[in-house]
Amino acid sequence: MWLWHIKFLRVSFTPAFSQSGKSVLANFVSESMEGIGSYSPTQGVRILEYEKPNLNGNSKGAGCRFELWDCSGDQKFETCWPALMKDSHGVIIIFNPELPSHLKEIEMWYSCFVQQQPLLDSQCLLVAHHKPGSAGDAENLSLAYPLNKLKLIHSNLEEDPEDVRMEFMKYFRSIVTLINESREREEMSIIS
Fold first, then answer.
1. How many domains does the chain contain in total?
2. Beta-strand (E) ranges in 29-145?
3. Is 41 helix (H, G, I), strand (E, B) or coil?
4. Residue 93's domain is classified under what CATH number?
5. Signal sequence span per UniProt (predicted)?
6. pLDDT confidence band for 180 (50 / 70 / 90)
7. Residue 61 located in a structural domain
8. C-alpha distances in angstroms, 101 versus 23, 86, 105, 135, 183?
9. For residue 64, is it within any domain?
10. Whole-structure pTM over 0.90, yes or no?
11. Residue 54, Cβ neighbours under 10 Å: how many?
């Protein structure tokens, strides 16, 4: 996740659910070829480092270095989650919208990874990931409060990979803007 005044941006792909597509999306966003074509459950956490030369889309923008923390969906790693969240700039909750159990558990993950951390709702992104061959209805997904106030995107890497990439870049830019504004306020309070 990337910068102008920031040296790096760290975003956690939450451990919300096993086999929801977190690793596939992390690989896609970071342009990593690791593990393509095979499913291998993440053990604990997998950190992908990624650089985006021009995050804001023009040739004059400064680059940013990202750390994507791809967290395991296995609850046996729950004791590690506080350490995984430390110093995180954002959280991406990825779920399979076709599985009712995922829809029921999102609120618990949101509470654990966003509300119990010093993060704003704008630092959280919900991703309804549609796996290859799924016939999911992207239009009729309704989430209860407080999830319905969060940014929700639908991800289908077969049908619209560049739209998915563009949505992630928008999210990363918003996090960078938020961090830069916070740092500027902090600097101004020191000067004043």
1. 1
2. 45-52, 64-71, 90-95, 124-129
3. coil
4. 3.40.50.300
5. 1-18
6. confident
7. yes
8. 19, 27, 6, 18, 39
9. yes
10. no
11. 13
Read off the DSSP letter of residue 66: E
Q: 65-89, pLDDT tens digit by residue?
A: 888 877 776 677 778 777 777 888 8
CA 17/CA 82 separation, integer angstroms: 17
Tokens of 119: 């993060």
Q: What is the distance between the alpha carbons of residues 187 and 82, in angstroms, rounded to a whole number? A: 28
The confidence score (pLDDT) of residue 6 equals: 33
Two structure tokens written together for 132? 């290859």
- In this prediction, residue 142 has a pLDDT band, given cuts at 50, 70 and 90, of confident
Helix (H) or strand (E) holding 13: strand 8-13
Residue 95 · residue 103 · CB < 8 Å: yes
* pLDDT confidence of residue 101: 77
Residues near 139 by beta carbon (within 8 Å), at least 6 away in sequence: none
- Contact residues for 91 (Cβ-Cβ < 8 A; gap 6+): 11, 12, 14, 85, 113, 114, 117, 119, 123, 124, 125
Structure tokens at 182: 């916070």
The predicted model gives 136-151 an average pLDDT of 79
Asked if residue 2 belongs to a domain, the reply is: no
